[in-house]
From TrEMBL:
Residues 1-19 form the signal peptide. SUPFAM superfamilies: Periplasmic binding protein-like I (SSF53822). It comes from Marinobacterium sediminicola. The keyword Glycosyltransferase does not apply. Keywords: Cell outer membrane, Cell shape, Coiled coil, Lipoprotein, Membrane, Palmitate, Peptidoglycan synthesis, Signal. InterPro entries: LpoA (IPR007443), Peripla_BP_I (IPR028082), TPR-like_helical_dom_sf (IPR011990). This is Penicillin-binding protein activator. Transmembrane segments: none annotated. Residues 418-462 form a coiled coil.
Amino acid sequence: MTNIHRLSFSLLLATALLAGCASQVPPPQVVDKVATDDQSADGLLRKAASLPATPAAELRLQAARMLAQTGEQQRALQILNATDISRLPPTLAFEIAKLTALLTLESDNPAAALQSLDRQRFNSLSALQQAELGQMRADAWLQQNNVTAAVRELIVSSLLTLDPQEQQRYHDQIWRLLQQGPLADIKAASVANNNYQEQGWFELALMIRASSDLAARQQAIDNWSRLWESHPALTLPPAGLLGLELDGEQLMAQRIGVILPLSGELARPASAIRQGMEAQLEIMRREGKPSPELIMLDSTGMTDVSLLLEQARQLNVDLLVGPLNPELVNQIAAQPDLEIPTLALNPAEPGPSRPWQLELSSEHEARMAARRALADGHKRVLLITPAAEWGDRVASVMQEELETQGGQVVGALRYQATDNYNDQVAELLLTRQSAEREQQLRELLRQKIEFQERRRQDADAILMTALPDAARLIKPMLDYHFAADLPVYATSHLYVGYPDATRDVDLNGITFCDLPWLLQPASEAQRLLSGNGEETLSRFGRLFALGIDAIKVYPWLPQLEQRPGSFMLGETGQLTMDQNKRLQRELSCTTFTDGEPASLISAQTATTEN
């Protein structure tokens, strides 16, 4: 499935535990009548043993919260599971079920959580509590990677909520899931026996996701609106539904100044960016759209950006794209008053004239891989990165993203490409220690024993950054050392850019995230470049995509900045803008199947069927 940001179970659990101090359940009156010298969990349980069902259950719930707060989740669960909630007041029963569900979700047991939150059991709750119940059930479904079931729960919750802000939150979450969930699952859900609200959401998602460009998207929304004029998604649209407005503010430019090095070591990548820009302009001309003129400004050897800015002013440039050099980008950001709108091709530090920024840093891929692992329910990961500066940067970003979302790195390997991968992977997975324990036991017992070598058990996934040759050797070593059951998530560094089933068969099962340019059917601009003999499917070819998106996105930069939730579908990803004016790229993710990215296999199958 695609990257879906699930709710943080640890945050929910903490909230539930804190809520215990101000629960809607009134404190048991009997507490005031007995001695308060022992308020420990064990003391509360002793008191509960001699009380009627309802006050006893209240004390057991209080004890379970105390135990969960001190890290004794399993004991807390035992107490909660032993409490019969069938004869308790609905609100108290719900409080017990909520804590039970949250603790089971923390233990990666969503099926048990759903059982605790059975809707039929709690049909007498208030509408607000029913909405909360749906939110928690949705979270459990997401932990099982069932997007459509989660969407159905959230739709119910949104209909039960009267607060417009809460409704908006539910609508935003529903739409995010429908935009990012597996398309096949949403298609299947759309032909099920749905009610009015469900069918409207599913059809809206399918119509939007079938739209190839901004104009088609706008037409799809218009068509859907006529069919579903009373639908909640129309009366309270989710953030990002409308994307960009064709008749909204656009940045117009007749002359675009392109700041790139025309000679030296960066001349070749700069040329690819320029060719991508020219290809997109040619597509615009073929479609009868006005296309600006490119004015090349050579930044080779430049150390002072003010000279380039003055040159741009003299040439009456309406927009600047570039530079690539980070130092020059930061000089632009530091300008007291930047007269010409600028789209830089590297990140910019804070400054009075910070430009818009679009770039291809590995940071996006590292975060996407970590988020994908988290979205699939994995929190304890092993990191595998090369023993190099760029590998350390990627590892740092992955770890930061994991820890921010409640995950953790339980082990790491900085692999040396020149060393034996078998030994390095064995050290990471601790299989060598397992073999040593076997030998020690045999020597101690002096007899033949049955012993199964095993890997470490504290990890549930692997995050990897590796170049193709290394990845093709590392994955078989992981399988050999009993880690074939651990899902592997990787950055695009392991993919050469084009299918090579013979060489990449050893990468089967690895999920990685990359540009739509490489993982989706070729766009018109890509076909144009390929027809001109350019090698578009390669790591270097990604620079063509950067140039194309620089032209595609520039008219919409004001809207992307001013309208949170708006986005544009580009060759480098789904583009949104953060508060630092940096374009964030939501990448495509896929899994190696039979030595090829599954997304390309699906596209080929669809083309054949059509």
